[in-house]
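Hey, can you fold this?
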Amino acid sequence: MPVTTHFRRPPQTADDPDTPEPTALPPLKARLARLTRPARWRAWRARYPRAALAARRTTTVLAAVLVLGALLLPNTLVALEPNRFARIPAEAVIGAVLLLCLPRVPRLVLAALFGVGLGVLTVLNLLDMGFTEYLGRGFNVVLDWGLLDDARSYVADSMGGAAATGAAVGAVVGVLVLLVLMALAAVRLGELLAAHRERAARGALLAATVWMTCVALGVQTFGVPVATRSASGALEAQAHRVVDTLRDEAAFAKEAKADRFGATPGAQLVPDLRGKDVIFTFIESYGRSAIEDPVMAPGVGRTLDTSTKALAEAGYRARSGWLTSATYGGSSWLGHSTFMSGLWVDNQQRYRTVTAGDHLTLTKAFEKTGEWDTVGVMPGVQKAWPEAEWYGLDKVYDAFDVGYRGPKFSWSTMPDQYALEAFQRLEHGRERDRPLMAEIILTSSHQPWAPIPELVGWDEIGDGSVFDGIEESGEEAADVIADSARSKEEYGKSVEYSVTSLTQWLERYGTDDTVLVFLGDHEPITRVTGDRTSRDVPVSIVAKDPKVLDAIADWNWTEGLEPAQDAPVWKMSSFRDRFLTAYGSTPHPTKD
């Protein structure tokens, strides 16, 4: 049997050069760095148990606040009050029961999807808040995504490109962060329920019992029901909105094909206005509130009274009434197309449908006669505008066609006074073989109503450079936007400016054959109007020829530029047919 010899290494000494240096135990931070993330977290919890417990509890509380806040969040700013969050959401009880019944992997998936769904619902509720505040209606998931780009453009025009880019990037990042946080919060709560399954099951049963009892007895706290299903109700409302939108699309396409004057020959359209220069002018955001609100009414009322007297001295008479606009707070093109087409165009799908067809517009009726030159002055248009053909406009002057070299006034590309003077120089003041029909959009009263132009001498306007100093000394848009009281005041001033510019132009350049029809396109945003539910806008017809106003005597409109409070109120879509009829047009309907 072989002999095995064992050698034992002699003990090393400090003098031995091969003896390794003694090393101290690495600090906690160094040790944690060498561990995986879960192991790192466990090591940290073991070393700092109280801090770990506090972190867990804080995370759980924040997760519960996020989830419950999303479930109870209303979709209007008016309803955003503390009492809304002192309720029991049915969705939380149902969600807890479902998560308790599932094994781990399906539970994690369902919790994450539930959290993402809550994030999406929160975004929709926030969009509803914004749209209700600015447009007087909720967000439409089918139609309104394009309006978000319009909102970015508005911010860029009002506050600069950097602010618009920052707001857009911030919104996208905010939505992504919200979705992730909601998913993590739901997963956190789901794991907590699973870790304490028996107690969680008893709690869910108790919550369900309390919820049903509160529903049966109608229990309320702070004026609102304790039991609620607001989250599922909000989703149902969005679903109904989608279904209604899709149904409306088909119904409106059929409606747009039927036209009372669609087949009327040109010779039988507006014969009683032959030889007249007819000018349709929209004043941005000129609504009933400007005339009746206690803050704006005194200044606007004085302006209308002064302008009525000045026009009377120049030989003009006016009659005024009310029209109910199809839009509110914005989307002016919906008001324009409703007024001109005689159809109720209250959303973007209807607008696309009607402008893609051949429904007769009021302006196109003049073109169809062959007796008028038809032009549009659109200082707010800064890109291609194919709708000009549908409106029947032979020539359109946009923001770049009128020779303006002055400053922008926030969103408005130029002062109304300049736009009107340019119209006079380019079209109305020219020698021509036949009369003129014009559609003019005045934009100086567009929000944010800062800075507002000031009137200058008409002979001083030139290329618009005279407005440089006025713009520089005006109010800052950001200051006015943030202050509701100042928004009201500046809005009123902007309407005074627009009305005065228009009536002074008529005094200066109008003739015996000039007929002016002017109106607001919609009410301003709720920051200005408050909780008013009216969508009414003033409308006036001004002329020297008494026959023009005699033709609408049975309309019972108020004499002057300010309609009486009890003056007739019509839907804006009814104006086209009334106007065509009043001035001698013969109906020849087309059918769907």
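Oh, and this one too while you're at it.
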Amino acid sequence: MLEQKISRRTFIKGSLVAGAVAAFGGSLVPLKGAEAAEAPEASATKVVPTICEMCGVKCGVLAHVKDGRVWRLTGNPKDPQSGGRLCARGNAGTKTLYDPDRLKGPLKRVGDGKFEPISWEQAFKEIGEKLIELKGRYGPQTLVWLAHPELISPLEKHFMAAFGSPNYTGHGPTCYSSRNVAFEQMYGGVPGVDYRNIKYYIAFGRNLTGGIKNPDIQKIVAAKAEGAHLVAVDPRFNDFAYFADEWLPIRPGTDLAMILAMINVIIRENLYDASFVAERTVGFEELKAGVASYTPEWAAQITGIDAATIARIARELAAAKPAAAVDPGWHAVTGSQYYNSVQTARAVAALNALLGNLGAKGGLSFPPTIKFGDPGPLMGPKPPAAVAPRWDGAGGEKWPLNKAHGIIQIFPERVKEDKPYPVKAVVIQHLNPVRSSTNSAAFIEALKQLELVVAIDIQMNDTAYYAHYVLPEATYLERYDPLMTAGNKVILRQPAVQPLFDTKGAEEIIGGIAKAAGLGEYFNFTLEQYNDAMLAPLGLTQAELARTGVAEVAAQPPDYTKLKTPSGKIELACQAFVKAGSTLTPAWEPPLVEPKENEFRFIQGHVPMHTHTTTDNNAYLHALMPENELWINPARAAKLGIKTGDVVEVTSKVGSVKVKARVTECIHPEAVFLAHGFGCGVPLRKLAYNSGANGGALIPIITAPVSGAAAQCETLVTVRKAG
């Protein structure tokens, strides 16, 4: 068992958490090497409410503008996300707007790493003609659209429907697919945690203050100040473990065993909410029988957490119900890290149900529903349904529960095999799969095999570097987007300044491609018309909403007595999983791989200073954390002759990277950890280029059962001191 002989004071010295705490503290301090804008007189400043896009949370911000320049960003106090406060990334948004390395106009590839500027007219014309040609030769299904789903995603999907391709795929398989599949089947949707009112909270691999969500952090900080007990279960002493009351250093990939044992204790000792279970769930007796053998003593042998601790945590959690929850998670053990992640997510869903916390204060909840208008009549005739199956098989016979999320990591294999039909073209928007997916080398080779690769982004990322056409989107401070909702509020993204360069909003780019590809009848509308149609039943227009940026509207609260499941209740025993080849109730499945004596399990995660691979060239955030390091346990490092600061070579079966080592007791001896989002291979991005290492180069293409998730932490590596 990993010893926990470490104090907060000892850990904070020289730790990555020091950077996290600095980032979490609010306003950025001026940083050496980063220009600090001087504050103009308040009377000369225009304030524009809009939406941040420095991460996926999309907090409401106020852009302070003078002489056509954004000099400051602050949180919008009317926004339910930011509540008037921004994290480090939100504060640093001006450095993305004024990044000297950002894309400034359309580019066409003319050689390896070589691009020439072209006009938008030429770009649209050539892309449209190529799409028409490929559609004629291979059918519309030859086109795949890969995206990090943003506010613009309804128009991306509309384009694909108009083109006739079913192949729109998000980044979910490298993030949240397993969690979503589990909760969608058992709860009818994915609930959130009422962090503000929680009394007892457990995070299995959920690094709440690392993969930082501003509104959640503000709420859980307030809850802790009022006595909430927070437990972090993770092989690594991560940012949240530093903040929590307890850290349980579990063996990597064994969280499922601990959760099953907790369910066992709560059922066996009659600690569950009996009335809630009887009235609002189905399958309790099947669950009870299914977990009968999963005792704390059994789990202790697997997890490295002693049986008494597992039982104590279960009892304390149950005693705090219903203001108690196990976080459904995000990217971690319930999302896309392990082969057993969907079973782990199912177990988390079942455990929460036993607490009777759905709809309860301090438990889990669904958002209210806002009744928008239908913009459909603006968007042309209804496109005919696509006739081909999806490129990745999602939603088909093998992956019946995964149609909404896709299986992005198999893209290289699918391009290579050409079955059941050829994939010859891809549009990639707001995504960098060369670094954010798995097996970077294989993804690059796949891109090289295609006849058309179009990248839409604000920067020349590692994927765009291999595109035939790079189309620059305006940054979030220069454009409008479709509407966003949070609770009972509608929020608008609008430009704070005019585009600095020859860039366009995504709706203009998508519409331009559509018209050049013969799909003009589907895009004969403006984004303002689209938003106005959505807002019409609410008595609002985009122009009116622009004044405040946020409007409170009527919303229908969720009906927890009638969930979107076959039974209308939480399905503790779920036939949908049986039909998908799994078990009726959550059951133990070991991780796919186990490290041998000379191997480590490679694990990765996020840090509060950066978002995926999008912020590594931001001057402020780069100054906070310019590179990543490989966390390695002292006992293992000593045997390999490795000290902090040494450059080490990390090798898996698909790749190898070199990176500095960080020797620390804050990582389980069986694992090494590398923060995600570093190792940029594009020399045009001067700050990010060759800073740190790209973990995606190490991760093989693995697809977990049922959910189709990427199982990124089922990766074994060796580590040696580099010569």
